[in-house]
Records
---
Amino acid sequence: MAANTDTIVAPATPPGVGGVGVVRISGDDAERIARAMLGSLPEPRVATYATFVNSRGEALDQGLALYFPSPASFTGESVIELHGHGGPIVMSLLVDAAIELGARLAEPGEFSKRAFLNDKLDLVQAEAIADLIDSGTAQAARAALRSLNGAFSDAVNELVEQLTALRMYVEAAIDFPEEEIDFLADDELVERLSSCAASFESLLSKAAVGRVMRDGYQVVIVGRPNAGKSSLMNRLSGEETAIVTEIAGTTRDVLRERINIDGLAVELVDTAGLRDNPDRIEEEGIRRARKAMAAADAVLWIQDATEPVPEGIEEPVPDGVPVTIVRNKIDLSGDTPGIVGGDRPVVQLAAKTGEGLDALRKHIRDLAGFRDLGEGAFTARRRHVEALREAQKRFEAGRTALQAARAGELLAEELRLSQQALGTITGEFTPDDLLGRIFSEFCIGK
Ligand SMILES: Nc1nc2c(ncn2[C@@H]2O[C@H](COP(=O)(O)OP(=O)(O)OP(=O)(O)O)[C@@H](O)[C@H]2O)c(=O)[nH]1
Ligand SMILES: [Mg+2]
């Protein structure tokens, strides 16, 4: 990969006031800038007390300087850290001084991007740093640290190796056309295929848990006015967040509440009742409800059990988003609480009394595929899960092609595509625009 020739600088600590503030400089000019600002280059990795000066020799601050010679640094380039006093003016004076001496202000995520480009981290690990910093629970922080330490990347790389071995095996067989080969009668091949399929399943389910651990699981509550959506949200969260009245059309905004179901972080989203001929405010509420549905991990469709079952689902729900019917107000209708069968899952409950609520909680946990992975847990992002699904799809397409057409060539090609999809997770095959998007979400100084 191309070497970065310019030298970047940015505060590494958050903006604002603190006891200590750190400015980080990385690149080919870091040593020269350090000599100019400190008088001499500190010994590698030894905290050295110094006065920080600008190019005119004016003292700006005093503190500790650290020098990490390339390649043994976070970015892989030579890095200087100036630990000064944590005031916004002091920090900007130090950054300006480095810029006067030839550095430029770093773009968001640029230190991490350089670490990635210099093979210090793969993409999953770079993302894990951001996830560790942003983690909302102690559990998520531990899982992000495991991703940073390579738990997720290792699992992806193992799967890539498994696919490579399989592809080599298939290609070797194709290369000897004089020997009549019957792929389907080849026990070794069948064995390898099913072992790859099992690896895909296992990694996908772990990554899905990791994704939910990072983002939380979005459950959107929709239904006709007065069905009891807000009552259900209040009951599940134990808070009186939403106004409940017997007037149809009470809720107009989208309301959110975070709850915890045995370690699963769930974001409940209460929405405006969906009906025809709404007033203008409600109309906007309904538009927002539909938008929330589009981002849902699961949809709860609330119905009033005392009323006839509405015919079908009138609302478009995005593909693949599970919809559960919730029959509410069974204290009035006399239905039994819990899950009942049918085309799609139906949970019968009463938001007012709490009957049937435990069945719903368990159902949501099952939908999320959430389980306690203990020490095996790592964080993952939506893009990782999508890439894994794509890779699995290619793999399965190859398997089908083999069975249907006995075509080893098709299998080999699909295996190659599957590997490529996996490569986007760790960054081996990631297009530049995706890289740009990922790192630009980081803060300046990361
Ligand atoms: N008996 C009984 N009444 C309920 C139950 N759940 C909700 N209600 C009542 O039904 C009415 C409507 O409840 P809400 O929670 O406001 O309904 P909603 O679906 O949020 O309604 P909108 O915001 O208008 O769309 C209120 O009078 C509630 O007290 C229940 O389980 N049993
Ligand atoms: Mg409501």
Note: DSSP finds 14 helices and 13 strands in the chain.
---
Amino acid sequence: MKSIKNQGSACCPNQCEPFEIDYWSLISADQDPDLKSAALGGELNLVQCPECGAFFHHDGDLIYFDAPAELLVFVFSQKDREKEPELLKRMQEDYKIIKNTLLKQLHMDYPPVSVFGLEALKNLLQEEELISFESEAVAASAAAQGFGVVRLKPSYAREHHFPYYVPAPAGVNEANSYAVVASKVLRAGLKSKLLRNFVDYMSQEGAQLPLTL
Ligand SMILES: [Zn+2]
């Protein structure tokens, strides 16, 4: 899916005359990594008022979608915050439509999330970056100790606060075997809250196997 630009009217915070702009209304992060970087850096939909020269963010609705990361974010305008209940209802309806049309071939099986404003999107993406870094450290530590590495289904990992990668037990297919190898990696000196959380969860009696890709 391609990223989409819309036209709209931007309102300068200094009460200048509104002016026409092109702004991004749909970001396809894996297709357009530059737009992902812009969102992370706070430069997405940053515009300059032609009258007074002020820079500001155009506060329009936006959908941010990262298919490989299984991340679908509805970014609502800051000024609509008090309308949250109806926006969430509309989001669920829009999600159903998007899921069954635009993204049908992706078989989406994870729910969307919502935030208000580009600053909140930036914070969410920065948090994602930290989780990705920590997950890569887990994968590197596991590999360094001679373990295989499996990738968890991203939306499942995010929901449970697990790393995106975990060490793979050899042959055995029980949740507890995952806990055992992950404990070994932690004991070897890796500091990872996400992996610790994974161990705690997989050690529980009756724990289900993790969802892997
Ligand atoms: Zn202005």
Note: The helical segments are 33-41, 84-100, 118-144, 154-160, 175-187, 193-203.
